[in-house]
Write a structure and sequence with these properties.
The complex is a heterotrimer of chains A (279), B (373) and C (302). Chain A is an all-alpha fold and 279 residues long. Chain A has twelve helices and no strands. Chain A has a domain of 172 residues: MetI-like fold (Orthogonal Bundle). In chain A, α4 runs parallel beside α7, α7 crosses α9 and α9 runs antiparallel to α12. The two termini of chain A are 38 Å apart. Chain B is an alpha+beta fold and 373 residues long. Chain B is 25% helix and 33% strand. Chain B has a six-stranded mixed beta sheet with strand order 6-7-8-3-9-10, sandwiched between helices. In chain B, strands 11-12-13-20-14 form a five-stranded mixed β-barrel. In chain B, a hairpin with a 4-residue loop joins β12 and β13. The longest helix of chain B is centred in the middle third of the chain and has 18 residues. Chain C is mainly alpha-helical and 302 residues long. Chain C has a single domain, classed as MetI-like fold, CATH 1.10.3720. The chains are: A mainly alpha (279), B alpha+beta (373), C mainly alpha (302). Chains in contact: A-B, A-C, B-C. Chains A and C meet through α1, α4, α5, α6 and α7 of A and α2, α4, α5, α6 and α8 of C.
Chain lengths: 279, 373, 302
């Protein structure tokens, strides 16, 4: 380190100034990232009828309004139902596919992986419009099965990626050991593979649930008069009247997302700590 | 833990009848590669057989076929006479110990050991009792509720062992189980495994690349190379009468010299080394006919079978290079002219010449100890 | 001593044996079972994904005879051409902005540790975990006439009347940059983290000062991350629907919102298909280039 002599001081000062500028710039970017994410939360507590920020008076009237509004509650429960069902279906199909891709000599694995992951690459607008045209013909617009199917297509890639990584990290000799001791495939899966895959499954389930809940484009096109997702309703109301009730819905979505992903992260950190302690 | 307590522990085992394993003309191809190129081996019940060879020799592939994790491209695997070539591993009633132990990290030790019992439908009380007994057998009582991640390598290996024998399988397969342990621990485990097997009576097929380990533990050793068995025999057979140059150099230390046949006597062949010395050697198989004079052969002799003598006639003459003190013996590296060099191992307490670096020495050996190929 | 008898050198296993080997392999899952395991998903994808997208693209070319008229329309009509050009331009702007803002943040993050790192990571993850719809809505909250920014500026006294900050291209750029910024930061950060710590130190010991260390050592090694992030952000920006739809207003149509409009309002499905084909092909070409670039870059880095 350079000693602090009289000649060096100007350079130290300029270095400190540069450092402060640097931290300031990064801080500004962090603010840029965070502010829009959280600004809806205080906005939801506004007492005014029309939208204003910052709220002149604070109140929970819009939360009350939300939980008494049939349309909003119907859209919310519809979205939650879809998210739950899509996650379950995506997990089941995803587990089967991941097992086949990682633990078998199936030919054409690269092609299969490409097809399974394709929905991640294709822009959602293309998927939305394409499915809309087909759904119109089969009268599936706004139906629960229709939306579950669409969301599953989009959630499965995440599940497969998570589970494949988890499976690859697992020592294959564990399953061999189980077999040598008398476990057939089902028993080996139940007692060895599944418990060890549980963290990956949890992460995959959380990602899948949030992806489905947040899904806006496909849900918008595939919602109809029979069934409307939460995101579609929000979309409509933003265009229509922009009342703070939308902020309430947004805040609730944020809370659910953060709660889910936060607990996954906490679990992961806890597991890492336990593993480190044992080693 | 003393050997006495080991004996106490082992005295409670009831022996079982080991299984007979028969490997019948087994071949294994992987695409264009051949891992096992035609192997026949009969293993008696209760035998401890080592599959010994360098990596790539096919020994692990062979073990996997006996276990059922690979299927033979040709040939058949039989256990107690029944053809199990197409039987999945979980129905073969074998026990297996893996190189990296393969303990279930999410189960406690007792749950790990009880797992095969659970697979066989034993009740909870039976499982607890038998698994605890097995853990006691390997000296890990008191640690039932621990997790594998909290154990040392040696302890994990013992748990793997307990888990493989708790249901008393007639055949035990071991895939280089001691490879990850340090020398002292490995030697102790070798004795424990051997004693365990002797008390239990199970047939053990043990894969290793360490010839010391094989010589220590096995009743018979099958030396494998490039997918074939080079020789099967007791440790003494393999050590004293290796069937070919590969086995001679793989097992124990051997000196190899080039020589030419110059004649034959009643019980030995007469060879001339490159430096002109005339020596005697015998073929590995006594009935082998002597090749014609002038043919090149290889001569193998173990370092401890060469004797240092006072100067005299008919002896091989050489110059001492290095002398190494190895605790129980002295190792001499001796240059014998153009013929190459010989390593000679002399016990420290022996009488006889004690040359040092640069000295001229005179060597001889019994013809029966020198093998000609 | 025992004699060794080996079988004759291996001949090719019989056909029956080879089929049996394929079918009943005990390592992992045998092939017939594996096929049964992937079949449900593949069938579902074929029905719900491959067929619809294929049909959409097909309608753009065959209605009912083969024709390129829809594609010609894109090129020929100034309106549509302008929309596509605007989409590419905005996507580029967003990518550049994200790079300029994201790279310093990634550098900053790479030097953190301990609780500071945890907090900073949470700051990046939080926006990622929040729905795009919610975040786009937040920008409406911020940019509208009586929104956060206008209120703040008026309070500061900088302006007297609210500025029209919303429903124009600027709003779209700002909002999309915000939404896509984490996708730029994460790959660059990962690349910087993977860099061995003593490399910059070694460079300094060889006589390089701060900026030169950065330019010659850190920057080149972070390039794979930069490439990743840039391509990902650009591809996402091209196909973005939600943010331009909410924040851009009817005068700032982009490719995705145009496709939506053609489908739902104008019911012009063949044309929508053509537009979708353009978007899809561009995306696939970029992804393929991405893979090739990453492969090349790995060789350069080593």
């Amino acid at each position: 380190m350079t000693p602090c002599s009289g000649v060096q001081q100007p350079r130290n000062l300029s270095r400190r100034f540069a450092r402060a500028l640097w931290t300031g710039l990064c801080g500004a970017v962090f603010l840029f990232l965070l502010l829009p994410t959280v600004v809806v939360i205080p906005a939801s507590f506004s007492a005014a009828k029309y939208f204003s920020f910052p709220p002149a008076t604070w109140s929970v009237r819009w939360y009350v309004a939300y939980f008494h509004d049939e349309d909003w509650l119907a859209a919310t429960s519809f979205s939650l139902e879809i998210a739950l069902l899509s996650t379950v279906v995506a997990l089941v199909l995803g587990v089967l596919v991941s097992l086949a891709l990682v633990r078998s000599e199936l030919p054409g694995k690269a092609a299969i992986r490409a097809i399974v992951l394709a929905p991640m690459i294709v822009p959602h607008i293309v998927i939305a419009v394409a499915m809309y045209l087909v759904y119109m013909r089969w009268d599936l617009v706004g139906t629960l099965p229709g939306l579950v199917l669409a969301h599953t297509v989009v959630c499965v890639p995440l599940v497969v990626i998570n589970l494949s990584t988890g499976l690859q990290k697992m020592d294959p000799s564990l399953e061999m050991a189980a077999a040598s001791m008398g476990a057939d495939r089902i028993a080996a899966f139940r007692w060895v593979t599944l418990p060890l895959l549980a963290p990956s499954l949890a992460t995959a389930a959380a990602f899948s649930f949030i992806t489905s809940l947040d899904e806006a484009v496909i849900s918008y096109f595939l919602s109809g008069s029979q069934g409307k997702t939460l995101t579609r309703k929000m979309f409509e109301d933003i265009d229509f009247d922009l009342s703070p009730i939308i902020a309430v819905a947004s805040t609730l979505i944020i809370v659910v997302s953060v709660a889910l992903m936060g607990s996954i992260e906490l679990l992961r950190a806890r597991n890492a700590r336990l593993a480190a302690r044992e080693a | 833990m003393s050997l006495a307590s080991l004996r106490d522990r082992l005295s409670i085992i009831e022996p079982i009848r080991g299984g007979a394993v028969s490997i019948d003309a087994v071949v294994k191809h992987y695409g264009s590669q051949t891992a096992v190129a035609g192997v026949n081996l009969e293993i008696e019940p209760g035998e401890f057989v080592a599959l010994l060879g360098p990596s790539g020799s096919g020994k692990t592939t062979l073990l996997m076929m006996i276990a059922g994790f690979e299927q033979a491209s040709e040939g058949a695997v039989r256990i107690d006479g029944a053809d199990v070539s197409w039987m999945p591993p979980h129905r073969r009633n074998i026990g297996m110990v893996f190189q990296k132990y393969a303990l279930f990290p999410h189960m406690t030790l007792i749950e790990n050991v009880a797992f095969p019992l659970r697979m066989r439908g034993h009740t909870a009380t039976e499982r607890k009792r038998d698994a605890a007994a097995a853990l006691r057998l390997v000296g890990l009582d008191g640690m039932e509720r621990r997790l594998p991640g909290q154990l040392s390598g040696g302890q994990q290996q013992r748990v793997a062992l307990a888990r493989a024998i708790v249901y008393r399988p007639p055949v035990l397969l071991m895939d280089e189980p001691l490879g990850a342990l340090d020398k002292k621990l490995r030697e102790r485990m070798q004795i424990e495994i051997k004693r365990l097997q002797a008390s239990l009576g199970a047939t053990v097929i043990f894969v290793t690349h360490d010839q010391d380990e094989a010589l220590t533990m096995a009743d018979r050793i099958a030396v494998m190379n490039h997918g074939k068995i080079e020789q099967v025999g007791t440790p003494i057979d393999l050590y004293e009468r290796p069937a070919n140059v590969f086995v001679a150099s793989f097992i124990g230390e051997t000196n190899l010299l080039e020589a030419i046949i110059v004649g034959a006597e009643e019980s030995a062949w007469v060879l001339r080394l490159v430096n002109g010395s005339v020596v005697r050697a015998t073929p590995a198989a006594a009935s082998t006919p002597v090749p014609a004079n002038g043919k090149t052969v290889k001569m193998a002799i173990r370092p401890e079978r060469i004797v240092l003598r006072e100067p005299g006639e008919g002896l091989v003459r050489g110059t001492v290079g290095e002398v190494i003190y190895a605790g129980s013996s002295l190792i001499y590296f001796i240059q014998i002219g153009d013929a190459g060099s010989l390593t000679v191992r002399v016990p420290v307490q022996s009488i006889g010449p004690r040359p040092s670096r640069g000295d001229t020495v005179f060597l001889s050996w019994d013809a029966v100890n020198a093998l000609a190929y | 001593m025992e004699a060794i008898a080996s079988a004759a050198p291996a001949k090719d296993a019989s056909i029956g044996r080879r089929v049996a080997l394929l079918m009943r392999n005990s390592k992992g899952f045998p092939i017939p079972l594996a096929v049964a395991m992937v079949a449900p998903l593949l069938i579902g994808l074929a029905v719900a994904f491959v067929q619809p997208v294929g049909q959409l693209l097909a309608t753009s070319l065959w209605h009912p005879d083969f024709t390129l008229v829809e594609y010609q329309r894109i090129g020929a009509t100034p309106l549509y051409f302008r929309i596509i050009a605007r989409t590419f331009l905005l996507a580029t702007t967003v990518t550049v902005a994200a790079l300029l803002l994201g790279y310093p943040v990634a550098l900053f993050l790479a030097r953190l540790s301990g609780w500071r790192l945890t907090v900073a990571t949470a700051c990046i993850m939080l926006p990622l975990w929040t729905s795009v719809l919610v975040r786009s809505y937040s920008w409406i909250v911020i940019l509208q006439r009586n929104g956060l920014l206008n209120t703040f500026l008026q309070w500061l006294g900088v302006i007297n009347a609210p500025l029209p900050l919303l429903y124009n291209e600027l709003a779209v750029v700002v909002a999309m940059t915000h939404v896509l910024l984490p996708y730029m930061i994460l790959p660059i950060w990962a690349a910087l983290r993977a860099m061995p710590r003593d490399l910059p130190l070694a460079a300094e010991s060889l006589g390089a000062n701060g900026p030169r260390v950065f330019w010659h050592v850190v920057l080149p090694l972070s390039m794979p991350g930069v490439a990743s992030g840039t391509l990902m952000v650009f591809i996402l920006a091209l196909g973005f629907y939600v943010t331009p739809a909410l924040v851009g207003g009817p005068r700032t149509l982009m490719l995705a919102t145009l496709i939506g409009q053609q489908t739902i309002e104008l019911l012009n499905w063949p044309f929508a298909g053509a537009l979708a084909a353009v978007l899809l092909v561009t995306t696939l070409v970029l992804v393929a280039a991405f893979n090739r670039f990453l492969g090349l870059d790995k060789k350069a880095a080593s």
